Amino acid sequence: ARATALDPTLAEPRAIVADDHALAGRYLEAEQAFADALAVEPRDPSALHLYAMHLYAVGRLRAARGVERRAVALDP
Question: Does the pLDDT of residue 6 top 80, yes or no?
Answer without folding.
Answer: no
